[in-house]
Amino acid sequence: MNGPEIHISFAPGLRLFVAAERRAGRTRVTTDGVSSLGHVVESLGVPLTEAGRLLVDGRPVDTSHVPAAGETVEVEDVTRPQAVPGAPLRFLLDVHLGTLARRLRLLGVDAAYESEDIGDPALATRSARERRVMLSRDRGLLRRRELWAGAYVYSDRPDEQLRDVLERFAPPLAPWTRCTACNGELTEADKDAVRERLEQGTEKTYDVFAQCGECGRVYWRGAHHSRLEAIVSEAVREFGGATAL
């Protein structure tokens, strides 16, 4: 490029996205004189889903602002909790985030999940069609223009991923109300109505059941319940919600 030179700095939380030489503070960038500030920020590695306010010489500007020579740009972190106006808060997760999807569903959060790699264009299209926040660790996917909304998942550890999403978006929690397999809503089920779906040992031992209205899967408080209860209790203690089935 051979155009206006600007000075740009990134909030500490965004520095993992940029080249090492830009992580210490303000650095010089030569622009082409016609590209928007949003384009410049993304060209330096930061998905706009992760950028908060853009300040030019201390004043907020839109991503469409075209930088002029000598301007000083500050890219802030997204404000937390992050508001997502325009639709009920719900999520779409890519193929690499299956454990996070199941844990969000365990907490009653609407979390659609693609168990197969359907490709970035299809994921972005579904995000826009269903107005879901796309959760991914794929920076390229989060830069696709057709996305309705998106967020980078910063950790590769499910416990940290869950805490990050709950802190960032503060979704209402309603544990034990969604099917962890398909995201459908659960309702109380009469034992006689689900008896044919139960193994003999389960039928004799348990009396309280719930069933998914979408896939028909039956749930009860079995041997695995204590592990799931620990996940739910920690999330509710930190982020609020109800624990009743």
UniProtKB/TrEMBL annotation:
This is Mut7-C RNAse domain-containing protein. It comes from the Bacteria. Residues 90-231 form the Mut7-C RNAse domain. Pfam families: Mut7-C (PF01927), Ub-Mut7C (PF14451). Residues 4-80 form the Ubiquitin Mut7-C domain. It comes from Streptomyces gulbargensis.
